[in-house]
Amino acid sequence: MTDRRDDPSELPVRDAVSRYLRRRRADATDSSVYSWEYRLKIFIEWCEGIGIERVGDLRPVDIDEFYDIRSGTVEPTTLRGEMWTLKGFIEYLDQLGAVEDDLQDAVRIPNVEKEDRSNDERLVEDDALALIGFFRNDEAARASRNHAFLEIAWHTGARIGSIRALDRRDANLDENYLEFNHRPDTDTGLKNKRDGERPVAIPSEVSDVLEEYIRGDRYDVHDDHGRAPLLTSTHGRPGKNTIRVWSYQATQPCLHSPCPHGREREPCEYTEHAHASKCPSSRSPHKIRTGSITWQLNIGIPPEVVAERVNASLKVIEQHYDKESPHERMEQRRRQYIENMETDL
User: Fold this and answer.
1) Low-confidence ranges of the chain (pLDDT < 70)
2) Does residue 72 share a domain with residue 137?
3) Domain match, 236 and 280 both
């Protein structure tokens, strides 16, 4: 009797993605598989949202529609990474004979202009949260120095000098806040001096990460003044240039997604300490600060509260840090208040 096998075109989209990721685990790093899983989750949710249940139901027009929707939602470099991931998945389905022969040809890979590839205006919310999600869920990367730095930088929006100035005693993790102090006599003055001193609340998840970092990867060392820095290098308190390198390393998109520049992470020189700043998509601490301030405003924190948290004036925030367009501000910040204008006339 002939061994009958199920028709691969009947595979649910979610199950097909799981099967694809299981196959790729044999020849890819954990971080690569995690990045593909993150990107393909978006595609799964889109398919389920419009009623596409089986991979055999996918048509070129569906792939084109998905491209159009995502192109209006994410940055060009992010879209490029997502579409490369989708193309790999569709090619796998084609190998199984589960989809139409021409489906993979419908996956458009956008041509990203040079100015878009190197645009470092800010670390955008989608990329920041994807990076944080990677660090929190990757066993080897969780609570590492780069992870601890990124959690602090993103959730406080603090300047590089303020992050460098943090001592272990300034991390009040039982109460979920960090305290920034002006200590110029021991080489950690704040930009706005005493006016820059403030406590900044952080989510409990961030406190948990910092607790793990302190117990694990943090070097138990002191600086030249006998103080115990929160973020440490092997020699004590890191210099600003060292922190910039950590920032470039912690924000490379290939940690959570395929490289938007067509490179493979393992042999790429940009992953090395000395060349991390050369990655066109990595971000400096200032660009994380810019993105964080925009994000804090977008999630509904009042501007005056954001100004106090990041130690900047409202005018400076509006002029230099609030990078959303007027339309984006309307949709993300003001739309929730429009219902208050409705009347029963």
Assistant:
1) 1-5, 29-31, 112-121, 319-345
2) no
3) yes
